[in-house]
């Protein structure tokens, strides 16, 4: 009979590895249950939605204001009905008119000084040109404007005009008149209708409006 051998090394290894193995990690602590967690989540989403909506409205509003400002600047400078372009065109026509050259004593090719109503302080540089817009019976927009001209010879005159917008991109002058103290009115462009001559020398002001700075009584 063959004797059997017993392998003690395996048992010793198992006993050794079992006793020296690190204990398993403790389970993570359970978070305390919040009864209002769902309500807080909904409130947080609503708050974020209103914040995003308010930011979007502010951005769109600023964008709209920017577009409006750009449109006003471009229409003032480039559209035929813009005050600046109308003013420059009227001054150029006056400088080319022979009757105006003789009355204001300036030569052809010379420039005249053109400006709006003189305020109380004559040294103020900002002299805006006065203009009024209205819609005529024919449905067309009309621009009425008044400004002053002065030459190097010291002669002074006031210019009144009416411009009619025939379309969005085109306009034409109904008349341009030059008034010089103690002289007869000169028309740079003759009026098409005699009705435009009303209130020429009246006391109610040009086109029924009080032009110029307010005078103290």
From TrEMBL:
GO CC annotations, alphabetized: TIM23 mitochondrial import inner membrane translocase complex
Listed Pfam families: TIM21
Species name: Hyphopichia burtonii NRRL Y-1933
Extent of Pro residues compositional bias: 21-31
Subcellular location: Mitochondrion inner membrane; Mitochondrion membrane
Recorded superkingdom: Eukaryota
InterPro entries per UniProt: Tim21, Tim21_IMS_sf
TM annotation in the entry: 49-74
Family membership: Belongs to the TIM21 family.
Cited function: Essential component of the TIM23 complex, a complex that mediates the translocation of transit peptide-containing proteins across the mitochondrial inner membrane.
Assembly behavior: Component of the TIM23 complex.
Protein name (database record): Mitochondrial import inner membrane translocase subunit Tim21
UniProt-annotated stretches for the region Disordered: 16-37
Keyword Heme: no
GO biological process: protein import into mitochondrial matrix
Membrane topology per record: Single-pass membrane protein
